[in-house]
Amino acid sequence: MEKVRRAGLTFYRDEDWNDLRHGVFTRRGGVSKSPWDTLNLGASIGDSSAAVKENHARMYRALDVCAERATSCWLVHGVDTLVVTGKTRSNGNLQKADAMVTNRPDTPLVMRYADCVPLLYYDRARRAIGLGHAGWRGALAGIASGIVEVMRKTYGSQPADIEVLVGPAISRRNYRVGEDVAELAQAYFGEGAGVIWRNPADGKPHLDLWRANQLDLQRCGVTNIKLMPICTYEHTNDFYSHRAEAGRTGRFGVLISL
Predict the structure, then answer these.
(1) Which CATH entry fits the domain spanning 2-171+221-257: 3.60.140.10, 3.40.980.10, 3.30.70.100, 3.40.50.620?
(2) DSSP state of 36
């Protein structure tokens, strides 16, 4: 991964994806005040709408993409994927989904995160991209492989041709979950998958979101997977963390565009 500073913002990009405009943005370089400081992209968490709008504008300028063509969705921790051919609004509201795919040039896909896993997809052969948001519900319901299936059905993508970047998220040592979540993980991945880790000190289950999404992708035939093992919980100087900051925080942005 390459760390880039441009137009006052700092973001990460895959240096092998030079024909894409994309970035995993840190929380620095925006105008939002505490506790959303500073590049908050979330519009429904109490921050000033004017600040959020300016932060979005700065992100688009940093990647030199068309703000008017940028598209997003209303994240609901599910597994639905939108096939984007234009704006994703219905009656003035964003459509509910946690993933988007497109083969339209100059159609930036944008999402917001604060511990959940960013999933960026690129099929060079079919010239198609995707973006996903995987929390525990999505990860344990197969959102990662579900996006691959939508790309296969829609664009003829083959799993072996799809490259996936798995972005910063909360690490397993900081992501304690309930026994109900551990049971769901076992039901989807089976025993011995390494998705659930139990702390030797207390025996409590912890969920490995990176491992879960990587395994889900591998099971459906994706082999080109890159991880960005940056824990959002431990790096709140650069990324927002819903858990580390007790819910009073912003959302960092991820953008990808053909």
Answers:
(1) 3.60.140.10
(2) S
pTM flag (> 0.85)? yes
Q: Could you please report the per-residue DSSP string of 83-127?
A: E-SS--EETTEEPB-SEEEE--TT--EEEEESSSEEEEEEETTTT
- DSSP helix/strand/coil, 226: strand
CA atoms within 13 A on the CB side of 49: 1
Cβ-contact 111, 254 below 8 angstroms = yes
β-strands 224-227, 162-166 pairing: parallel
Q: How far apart are CA 44 and CA 211, in angstroms?
A: 30
Residue type, 30: G
Q: Which residues of 203-239 are buried (b: 16+ CB within 10 A; e: fewer)?
A: eebbbbbbbbbbbbbeebebeebebbebbbbebeebb
Please name the residues in contact with 172: beta carbons below 8 A apart, sequence gap of 6 or more: 197, 206, 207, 208, 209, 210, 211
User: Within a 13 Å sphere around the CA of 113, how many CA atoms are in the beta-carbon half?
Assistant: 32
**186 in Cβ contact with 125 (< 8 Å):** no
* pLDDT tens for the chain, residues 1 to 258: 899 999 999 999 999 999 999 999 999 999 999 999 999 999 999 999 999 999 999 999 999 999 999 999 999 999 999 999 876 665 557 899 999 999 999 999 999 999 999 999 999 999 999 999 999 999 999 999 999 999 999 999 999 999 999 999 999 999 999 999 999 999 999 988 999 999 999 999 999 999 999 999 999 999 999 999 999 999 999 999 999 999 999 999 999 999
